[in-house]
Amino acid sequence: MLGAIAGDIIGSIYEFDEDKPDYNFQLFTDKSHFTDDTVLTVALAESILNNISYKELLYEYYHRYPYASYGGMFHKWARIKNSPPYNSYGNGSAMRVSPVGWAYNDFETVLTKSKESAEVTHNHPEGIKGAQATASAIFLARTGKKKNEIKKYIEDKFNYYLDFDLEELRMNYKFNETCQQPVLQAIYTFLMSESFEDSIRKAIYIGGDSDTVACINGSIAEAYYGVPQNIIDEIIKRLDKDLLAIVNEFRERFVFSSLRS
Questions:
Q1: Which helix (H) or strand (E) covers residue 244, if one does?
Q2: Residue 73 in contact with residue 91, Cβ under 8 Å?
Q3: Which of 12, 64, 183, 243 is the most exposed place for a label (fewest CB within 10 A)?
Q4: Upper half-sphere CA count for residue 111 (Cβ side, 13 Å)
């Protein structure tokens, strides 16, 4: 989960850049900030911690943090309590799902819970698939699977194409808020990375919806590599005490007890 937040904060200032950043871009500036990706990720974490419905806390967190750059459809959904799902296939289901990949220790439960977390808003099959693919990659990474095993599973289970060329992707990739594109690019850039920081840099290097691609990417990279302390320190500076309290509680209960087999 911390990796997702790191990706969101690092990518926040590059999301709408017309000129894609060089690989050696500055990771953190005084303008780096958390967005809706972080807010809704923490909402799901608290849902799991306290056994509160996903729907209830997504609504509640929206009203706690009303200016966190939510998508237009989510704005409409969250303004009215108990709104029905809106058949979205956007990337919001994947960007917030990382707590599910950490909290459950069998694969079928991860698939079930990631579907449940998505479908309160993103009940389109592609929205559900994006959440399940992301949570699956996290689960596989944190339980010690190799990258080739993660790649094969994601390709076979979700029919995702994960063979790209980084420079071609950078040249052609454009801003896209659907699940079909950002989830693929996030997983691909993780698979070809050499470290957590390298993974985040490659996710942002390709351009597009940088905070969300890096959020999804970082959620998987954390499970595989861990998050470096220098990046953790920068995250702590930028989270308010309420968000940080939930992050710490979740990590103490689930992350530190997770072992690579």
A1: helix 241-250
A2: no
A3: 64
A4: 8
Q: Which tokens in the block code for residue 52?
A: 């509160």
What's the pLDDT at 260?
40
The C-alpha atoms of residue 245 and residue 259 are separated, in whole angstroms, by 23
- 68 belongs to a structural domain: yes
User: 36-50 and 54-64 are packed helices; what angle lies between their axes, rounded to 10 degrees?
Assistant: 140
pTM for this entry: 0.94
Cα gap 39→92, rounded to integer Å? 11
Mean per-residue pLDDT of the chain: 92
Domain assignment present for 194: yes
pLDDT at 199 over 80: yes
Question: Is 23 among the domain residues?
Answer: no
Give CA separation, 15 vs 71, 86, 87, 165, 257, in Å. 13, 25, 25, 21, 34
CATH of the domain at 180: 1.10.4080.10
Q: By C-alpha distance, which of 202, 210, 165 is closest to 19?
A: 210
Report yes or no on 228 lying in a domain. Answer: yes
Residue 197: closest CA among 10, 63, 1, 51: 10
| DSSP for 62-74, written as a single string | HHHSTTS---HHH
C-alpha to C-alpha distance for 133 and 191, rounded to whole angstroms: 14
pLDDT in tens, 74-91: 999 999 999 999 998 888
User: How many structural domains compose the chain?
Assistant: 1
Domain limits for position 233: 2-17+32-255
